[in-house]
Amino acid sequence: MKKIESVNDFVIKFANVNGSGSASANTLFAKSIMRMGVPISPRNIFPSNIQGLPTWYEVRVCEEGWLGRRGGCDLMVAMNPQTWEPDVAEIEPGGYLFYDSTRPMPQSKFRDDIHVLGMPLTEITNNAYSDPRQRQLFKNIIYVGALSALLEIDVPEIEKLIAEQYKGKEKLLEPNIKALHMGRDYALANLPCPLGIRVRRADRVGKKVFLEGNSAAALGCVYGGATFAAWYPITPSSSMAEAFAKHCRKFRTDPETSKNRFAIVQAEDELSSIGMVIGAAWNGSRAFTCTSGPGISLMSEFIGLAYFAEIPAVVFNVQRAGPSTGMPTRTQQADVLSCAYASHGDTKHVLLFPEDPKECFEHAAVSFDLADRLQTPVFVLLDLDIGMNERLCEPLKWDDSRHYDRGKVRSYQDLEAGARFGRYLDVDGDGITYRTYPGTHPKRGSFFTRGTSRDRYARYTEDGKAYVDNMQRLLRKFETAKDLVPKPERFDARKPSRFGVIYYGSTSPAMREALADLEAASVEIDALRIRSFPFHEEVIEWVNRHEHVFLVEQNRDGQLRTLLIAEGNVDPNKVTPVLHYDGTPITARFIRGEIAQRLGAFNVTPIKKTAATGGGE
Amino acid sequence: MTYLTKPKLHHPELPKNKLGFTRRDYEGTVSTLCAGCGHDSITGAIIQACFELDIAPHRVAKLSGIGCSSKTPTYFLGQSHGFNTVHGRMPSVLTGANAANRDLIYLGVSGDGDSASIGLGQFAHVMRRGVNMTYIVENNGVYGLTKGQFSATADRGSKSKRGALNADESIDLALLALQLGATYVARSFSGDKAQLVPLIKGALTHPGAAFIDVLSPCVAFNNHEGSTKSYDYVREHNEAVNALDVITMHREITTQYDAGTVQEVKQHDGSVLRLRKIDAGYDASNRITAMNFVQERYARGEIATGLLYLNAHPRDLHDSLNTVATPLNQLNERELCPGNAALEKFNTLLR
Ligand SMILES: Cc1ncc(C[n+]2csc(CCOP(=O)(O)OP(=O)(O)O)c2C)c(N)n1
Ligand code: SF4
Question: Is the shortest distance between the CB of B143 and ligand 1 below 6 Å?
């Protein structure tokens, strides 16, 4: 029988029961490989429920450093009897199945083309522990021990990680180490160690850091000077609010008084969250909320107010699969249009598309400068894949010489010196007007903020000319935004190409891998990663320069494509959508398959027949 | 309708307060509400209260939702920053504003439609969070701006201008505020300045969530069919182009009565309010007593007015959030940004 043989390049998947305490053991497993210098990219795949139902943790081990989801699975750790059949079916031919053989499975339950490793885990744990909770928790550590032998993972790395985890709780350290060795010893004595797939120490991780997009974005808010956050719990964005609270406690407590230099309110709903953000920002605080699609729907009325009354507001949308409640714990990029045009009437909003945790951090910090500078809502569009999974990325950096751009604010001194003040007066011709914070000056600079039409001096009017004047200025402001938002990132093929591919956000790692594969198959294609909306001039130029462009997105309707056509005046025939929207993160396999196939239709040759073609998952 | 600035010609002998301001300095633009609308009397009371308290107008942030009542912040404190938010959602905006700058005085003005219908959720939560503010509901039992539909504070069994009977139970916002933890709860009548002004002053100086329910008659939606003063009649017999501006003139309803007594007030539509002013012996320090009192009076067909409840030592939102004394919007970059060195340290924890 074929046996998958691969060092530092495989996918392992853990099938567990939600609530069984497997998460920390699984992370321990993944991190120990990373500590051996081998890049990993783990993903939590979990249904929308709290306890008792299935959950998976998938780790891609890839020395080359590709962090997208590969698709398929080489070793399945099948700890959930409920999902046995699909789990067994998912293993690649020649792959491995590790299972609890306390009650051995009949041969008919396996496949002929996979290798089965049975270990009587329950029996071993039950013999060693009497407390039911201990039995459950240590069982997880025991299988990590067994895997360390099967895959040749360095034990000291795991021990060090356990020690870090239980720092200050040394009593728990010893029994964990014991359980680890119990599993390891059993595997060494009874199982075919090592397997065809295994880990070997490398030096491919370097100074990279490993964190979730949500946590990185929250830290970006701290560095970007956010002092106020309001939120309402929703998967997959709640962990961002929780991380903001944690980072604030660490970095923003006044050392003398132990008081908080921040305020976080868990609001009663999303309407309130955005309302509070608008109130705080009106008053000169940097403020944000984080939510997901359903929250954006609820916030829409208020977002229109912020747009029209010109109040900075930062909204993080950690997207999940819609519409409606959709698939709450699955990923998509399907709120692009609802954010770009959120609310009734003519509106357009600034969007940012971070690609990894590092950029989540950077875009978060920059979003506050943009919101203040433009006095408008700014949306940072993460998604579940990027927000809730830990990912390897370059270390976070901050330029200490950087200063916050608080935009056009008239101070007491400005007003005292007689600065001309009209709240909606376009003094500089860029569409951006000057504001004052409430309470600035006893006699000058106060104005009335409202969602109804007003003249340049903030006085209510329904005069059509004044209304049009205001709406036109808002468009001018949006033009100004084009040069302020993050520029796109270009990747040119080795040889000039007629073809291009556009992508954005969390598609990045899979896309990079797909491009490298296509290049290896001698397919030359330029790539452009869009980082923001409104589209930078360069985006439109780039599209126009190419004969044909593919737009890869994780939604059904090609939402960014629609935006490109509507706002960039791009010829629709020029842009072919490549869409993936089943709720799982897009894979390189899928992208290169789709592109290769479509290029075939354009008579592009040669495309070497590689693993690249064939697509599907 | 456009915005009308009031001429600022001061009579030299107008009395001044400690800050050197006259009452005129606390006014805003000319009201565009119907002549005789109770809301205008409340505007007058707010102006008087702020003048008498020597409040620097620019230190007040005035916020409202949407409705006739929510328009009133334009008519007072012309030097304050104002914010007409969206329908029913002023409380959240006020909460955020207060979190960002705890040093200003927050005055929220709302209607009964705004607060008791679309905004009931936000009303409840702003009270239970103990946001330091004065929250005034100008309560007329109808939707004024959208022309006379019942609001959720309309009494069960009352009749609309169109003759419809209100079948739903009414919401008593003062009772709700009591239950939800407001630390200053009062009720008054727009026409009873002698009672209302001190209540507003008390609320403005109260360092917690202060709520005042002010009954405020609507002149426009009590002119019934067949009347020569009705909206339709006037429109048919008038050449004016803007129907909204031709609502017949009424006088504001005013009243004065003694503590402990009941006063019957006839409204524009002929209905009668029975207001009972709580007497001097009333103990306003007990929340439960206050709730019982309000409910007992209601059962008798009376509306209890006056200061219903006061907690003299309230905790506010900033206490629960443990925020620094400096307003958050005044913290500087050094206090906010941990810098690259801290980030490098943080990076090491992420490997
Ligand atoms: C979301 C939304 N729904 C409905 C409206 C229409 N609307 C404007 S004011 C109002 C009612 C105002 O009633 P109330 O708060 O009692 O104030 P009043 O005019 O009686 O003083 C309504 C329903 C709106 N502006 N926004
Ligand atoms: S409609 Fe009623 S509430 Fe509105 S301004 Fe006229 S009288 Fe006042």
Answer: yes
